[in-house]
Amino acid sequence: MYRLIYTGLFALTLLASGCTSGSRPGEIAVIPQPARMTVGQRSFRIGAGDIRTRIDTGRVSNPEGYRLTVGPEGAEVVGGGEAGVFYGLQTLEQIKDPEGYVPEIEIEDAPRFPWRGMHLDVSRHFFPKEFIKRYIDILAYHRINVFHWHLTDGIGWRIAIDRYPLLAERAAWRRVKDPKAPWIGLELSDRSRRDSADTYGGYYTKEEVREIVAYARERHITVVPEIEMPGHSEAATFAYPEYACPTAQPGSGIYCPGNDSTFVFLQQIIDEVLDLFPDSPYLHIGGDEVGKEQWHACPLCQARMRAEGLRDEHELQSYFIRRIESHINSKGRAMIGFDEILEGGLAPNATVMSWTGFEGGVRAANAGHDAVMVPLYYVYFDHYQGQNPCEPQAWGGYNGLPRVYSFDPVPPEVEPDKRHHILGGQANIWTENIRTPEHVEYMLLPRLAALSETLWTDTAAKDWGRFGRKMDRQFDRYAAQGWNYAESALTPFVAEQHFNGNGELVVRLAAELSGYPIRYTLDGSVPTERSDLYADSIVVREPATLTAATFRGGRPAGCLLQVPGLLNRATRAAVLYAAPYSAPHTGGGDTALVDNRYAFKRGDDRAWQGFRETDMNLTLDLGSEQPVAGVWIRFFQHLSTTSVMLPTRLTVWTSADGVNFAVSADRAVDPEEDSEAVIRPFDLRFPAPVAARFVRIRATNRKTLPEGHPRAGGAAWLFADEVAVY
């Protein structure tokens, strides 16, 4: 019998009793979906002694493929290699029901792509060896066979290099701002590497790396290391500034290709790294986002360009990449890098990892180079997976479960005879905002299930509805393993809303994973199992706060949806702007602030209405004179990545005739120091209700970004999304 290498991940718990018959099995919830599957009428209780395994390349040609047969005589797994047997046993475990019964079944299966990858950035925040093993367990469970280990980037160098001990001998490289220069510098922390309370600190010893590589090997996962170059190398160029351009600041983060000693330095590092990763055919060099201004100002770089006949700094980057690739090839390995390595001409044997979209991978494949697709719009798992206030801080946009499932690594632009150059795809987790193992798992699961089926299962066998139903079992499996998975796909959201002929607001709800009951209230209270059950719409006839929750297994799942201020006095009011909103950020037009649609905490959410360097100054016509007690409004700020800031002052005037206005509320706004994304609501209650038809609101823009902001001196923006009048 094939022995599982490890226990606790999905260790087989089939009972030791002999094979006995049971009733007809229910729906088979295998993720990823097998290529071909035939299910019989019966099920059998399979004992551990009833499982036979063998490798037969005549029956199964793909070394990762397998055939699984379950019948009265027990279960047989035939693999095209050890990996195939491994995956066949995984499927056997998944089709077992809670009572230990396995359906009568025949499965023939093999993966669509040879590269099914998952990335983890340990440079921004360090994660200990024990968690890296747990991460590998999760990948193995989902039939991921490549672990892209992002070991160096920016201020973090996480792997010991004997020849250059300063790279990792301290625990932390900390960002410090030089007030006299616009660059981000570094300073060394004196904290020891084992003081892991600060996840900025730490590195992996060579013994730990070898242990992790061996651990992954046993789970049929290849670890591909990444050592960033020529950019994203602040820690290295601070520790060894002689390998940066002589005109650059210490810790500039970009190696100098005009200096031959730079290549000696990097080649010696590469040699030590390759020795630690004997299984990997590749070394990933990053190669992305290289600012070339330093090279333009560097006399050594300019001399190199003249000597080599290079027309510009893009070709200088290509020279750097080609020279590094030559050394990697001389060691019997291949180079892989992000799509910016195409700039100035692609190195002869390079594989492209296309992250900015599909275009780089398409160009590479059509030119005869291998490519791996990792487009950020689909498979960057550091992006949000839910549009709710309870989601932890994330980076960039929104990649929910359906979008990940829709990812296809082979776009139609790839020429038919070149499609074999698309090796597959992977997802990336960058950790600027992810500081704990629990947060990593939350961002990984359940999206990894969608990625698994996308990369393993042929497109003809994929079915989103079936996948959604299977996820119910998958959530239980995650819980049994103790993995911290997200329930974001269960959270209800407003899918559509409109006003009917009676002036009532009709709201339609949905969730990414359907089939679960949604219950709601209109008084702001938290729904329970006794609250109204959502059917096909909710009709709102009077001012309300809609609160909704999805229920799974008798308890609320995911986050609460709460939409305040429905049918408030400002809803559908006419809005007159004293100064226009910005064309790139309309929020939806003149009615954007009074349409009961709420933006999420991302600067790219189209519900935000933006004002660049100008105040938000608008007047609402409520249609008739009525008592008004105050105004409620929300603003957005994200200091670390945008130029959007809170207003400095909020002022509200009221008027009965639209000519004579009186100040009803005036408030200075305290600055919000949090560098991450925040949505701040303001409740501007009047001293006493006033009779008014017109309400004028001005939010004072800071105009210029203040000192200490990453873009100090630039234009400041205001982002607002909804106004309620009560």
Structural description of this entry:
The structure is a single chain. With 726 residues, the protein is an alpha/beta fold. Helix content is 21%, strand content 30%. The chain is flat and about 85 Å long. The protein has an 8-stranded parallel β-barrel with strand order 7-8-13-14-15-16-17-18, surrounded by 5 helices. Strands 26, 27, 28, 29, 30, 31 and 32 form a 7-stranded antiparallel sheet that branches. It has a 6-stranded mixed sheet with strand order 1-2-6-4-5-3, covered by helices on one side. Helix 2 (129-141) runs parallel beside helix 3.
Largest sheet: 8 strands, parallel, barrel
End-to-end separation: 72 Å
What general form does the structure show? flat
Q: Based on DSSP secondary structure assignment, what is the total number of beta strands?
A: 32
Beta-strand content bin? 25-35%
Helical region count? Answer: 14
The mean pLDDT is 91
Structural class: alpha/beta
Rg over CA atoms = 29 Å
Unreliable stretches (pLDDT < 50, length at least 5) are: 1-17, 171-198
Strand order of the largest sheet: 7-8-13-14-15-16-17-18
Helix content: 10-25%
Characteristic terms for this protein:
32 strands, disordered N terminus, single chain, eight-stranded parallel β-barrel, alpha/beta, about 725 residues
